[in-house]
Specification:
The chain is of the alpha/beta class and 459 residues long. The protein has 14 helices and 25 strands.
């Protein structure tokens, strides 16, 4: 499998998320293009922008505005070939990436498949809770919430409490942002759409086992975020550990039962399944253990970037977009160093800060030792997320969607798609609708994990 040094080296990248995309871009530059041929594989033909998935699920943005065709990104980069296939494993001995089609040979391999939702062994969570890790899940969640309101409109006065209750598990960035977006959705557009439900108050409940929301943030920002959510009507419950998830209720460790037909799980992420299927050494969170240079021990030709890797560093970087982007660029540069006969360098994460939006005109941001709240933090959040979006068209669409919502208090994407039939059995049907897209085996990296990121969206 070794090739003559005068030939171009074959670099295969698994996953077109933040890490894989930025690695491919670096290897497509002029100094690298003459030395390497890149094959980028992903189970989808598009790159997803995960930080805005929650806005798709809250009927704020169309899914098409946060995805971009992979082939369009690399159209003018002739040394990059994209393949739509699913990575199912790695034959490290023969240097092959195993797929649902033909194996793909490599000289250097970059694994950047992203992460998956972690349910921490909670009974019923995987079957009865929605995730927010893919476009399919976001659309399914949006449709389910709207269908619950449609069913409630048919019930007359005998509306079950659970039907208009949304419980969000996990008060990190994703959970907090989604709870705020939902509160605005149900108190604004849906209240106008369903005036007959006015006396049946819809509820948004945010749960977390931790003692406060946004635990990685400074205390002042956490307090601001909590107060803002409460003011918006969100029922925030901390020190609330989930013991079981049923189709129409959440059971807490203290025995409390919370009726809810819509349960959203944003409590954690774990490494991609490819770590198991590649027979690699796994560490905390089932992430692939790698050296400080982001290489696999005894397999220096395999590099791991993004959420799926666990680097042997004194301080483990957060699972956010800036980290994934930095790691993607780093492993690409290391491959070029190896081709030049130089030793690979250790990865050093440069923390650019964190930010979270809390509904209309409010956000929190921590950048270095500086803390921002309210409207200035919200403007900063808007600017950063627009700058990280791929494609001018997507930036325009997202900006127009935000402007429409801001000026007219309107959500234009209140659509139940696809229409799965009658809404009569929408609550209590279990996994059928809720698992759509959740357990996809993304040899893709389009479902990257943890959300508290910036100045750059989370990965």
């Amino acid at each position: 499998m070794y090739r003559d040094s005068s030939e171009k080296q074959r670099v295969v990248i698994v996953g077109a998320g933040f890490a894989g995309l930025w690695a491919a871009r670096r290897l497509a530059k002029r100094d690298a293009a003459r030395r390497v041929d890149v094959t980028l594989i992903d189970r989808n033909n598009y790159h997803t922008f995960p930080p805005l998935l929650y806005q798709v699920a809250a009927a704020e943005l169309e899914p098409e505005s946060i995805v971009y065709p992979i082939r369009g990104i690399f159209r003018k980069m002739p040394n990059v070939n994209t393949v739509m296939t699913e990575a199912t494993g790695v034959d490290a001995r023969n240097r092959l990436v195993l797929t649902d089609g033909s194996p793909i040979p490599y000289d250097h391999l970059i694994l950047a498949p992203g992460s998956r939702t972690a349910f921490f062994g909670t009974p019923g969570a995987g079957e009865n809770a929605f995730g927010l890790k893919s476009v399919e899940e976001a659309v399914s969640l949006r449709s389910h919430i709207l269908a619950c309101f449609e069913r409630a409109a048919m019930e007359g006065d005998a509306i079950p409490e659970s039907l208009l209750t949304v419980a969000v598990v996990g008060a990190g960035a994703t959970g907090l942002e989604y709870a705020g977006a939902l509160a605005e959705l149900v108190s604004g557009p849906l209240a106008l759409d369903f005036p007959r439900l006015a006396k049946h108050k819809a509820r948004v409940i945010l749960l977390d086992a931790a003692p406060d929301v946004l635990m990685p943030f400074p205390p002042r920002l956490r307090e601001y975020a909590r107060q803002r959510l409460v003011k918006m009507g969100v029922d925030v419950r901390t020190n609330a550990q989930v013991a079981e998830v049923k189709p129409d209720a959440i059971i807490l460790k203290d025995g409390t039962s919370i009726p809810a037909c819509t349960i959203v799980w944003s409590a954690g992420v774990m490494g991609h399944e490819l770590g198991h299927e590649g027979a690699f050494t796994l560490g905390r969170g089932e992430r692939i253990v790698v050296t400080p240079t982001l290489q696999i021990v005894d397999r220096p030709e395999i590099h791991v970037a993004g959420d799926t890797g666990l680097p042997g560093l004194e301080k483990i970087p957060p699972m956010v977009a800036p980290n994934a982007i930095q790691q993607g660029v780093h492993v690409a540069r290391n491959i070029l160093r190896i081709l030049d006969g130089e030793a690979p360098e250790e990865f050093v994460y440069k923390d650019k800060g964190s930010m979270v939006t809390i509904g209309r005109s409010a956000a929190v941001a921590a950048i270095g030792k500086r803390e921002f709240t309210g409207f200035p933090a919200w403007l900063l959040w808007l600017f950063v997320h627009l700058s990280y979006l791929i494609g001018f068209r997507n930036r325009i669409l997202v900006l127009l969607g935000w402007a429409w919502d801001y000026l007219f208090y309107e959500r234009s994407v209140r659509l139940i798609l696809p229409n799965t039939g009658s809404v009569l059995h929408i609550c209590g049907t279990g996994a059928g609708d809720r698992t759509a897209g959740k357990n996809d085996r993304s040899g893709a990296g389009n479902t990257p994990g943890g959300r508290a990121g910036a100045p750059g969206p989370a990965s």
